[in-house]
Amino acid sequence: MHSLTESACQPEDIAKAVEFLRAGQLVAFPTETVYGLGADASSAEALRRLYQAKGRPTDHPVIVHLHHAEQVHDWAQDVPEVLDALSAKFWPGPLTVVLKRKPHVLNQVTGGQDTVAVRLPNHPVARQLLQAFDGGLAAPSANKFGRLSPTLAVDVRNEFKSEVAMVLDGGSCEVGIESTIIDLSGGTPKILRPGMITALDIESVLGVPLFAREAASRNVDETDEVRVPGSLPSHYAPETKLALCASGSMEPIVSAYLEQNKTVALFHHTPHTISGEKYGAKLHSSLAPSTAAAYAHVLYHALRELDAIGANLILVEEPPSGAEWAGVWDRLRRAAAENS
Ligand code: TXA
Ligand code: MG
I need a surface site. Which of 38, 57, 81, 254 has the fewest CB within 10 A? Predict the structure, then answer.
């Protein structure tokens, strides 16, 4: 096993990464959403290593990352025409599409289902790597199963040691939460995981109302036939107990904790929700950005930092509603579901 190589991204780093990948090793790389843990999606041995490193159940499918849209047909069949319009508008970018699989696609990629998920990431390092690799890379988020997704190379290095051959460093991930997943394998398109490409964005291309369906399906995903690990409530969770709370109800919760001599880490977007002076050092308060894009960008890093405080509670002010906030809401709900 190779030791972990830290890396900025020179052409020789890409060449080395491709060498590792062709040898069935794992290479973590940045995407515009979160860091991915890459493995050759055509190699059963590389996929075995990937599942082992992540500690992920082997029947959970992974996304195949590609460099250009024509490669989709190497992995999927019966591709609906509407993919052309979606791909023209959103690829490369944070949209994953679930399609009917080609028969040769390994069960370790599909989780044994008759579908395969594909996406073209839009980060220069990811694109360089995929172009040089010239094939599909299975790349789940580069975190141990059930933990927060990494948005910095250092997050990956802290979580994996020698089981990952190389970490390509592409700075901080711009989008900050995982891609939107849309299922195009059945009759009606369905959003399986909300993200920063919103239901409304997709609707405007498809010409069908997705938003109502997404809202209706939000609470039934975990019992769906399709296995989406990200839809288990315990996913994306910090160690510290996390509660989501409407702006007006935060004060009594904080008071109750502090009266019991417990500490609270507050993540709020409305300034002056609670007076810091009144509570002193027992209350750690940090201000969240007010737009959905900026909020998503900082979310996982903020949760890591709030977790590191070691407070008794992370109290998050409920974000605004609206289609552009659906991805943020989804990740916060899951984080809150962990210890409730
Ligand atoms: O933004 C992202 O999508 C990141 C970056 C690295 O590209 N990747 C990511 O991968 O989030 P992962 O494995 O952490 O989450 C992929 C999700 C899982 O919830 C998985 O169940 C779902 O995609 N998925 C994969 N193949 C599927 C399929 N055939 N049908 C339904 N869901 C699928
Ligand atoms: Mg993940």
Answer: 81
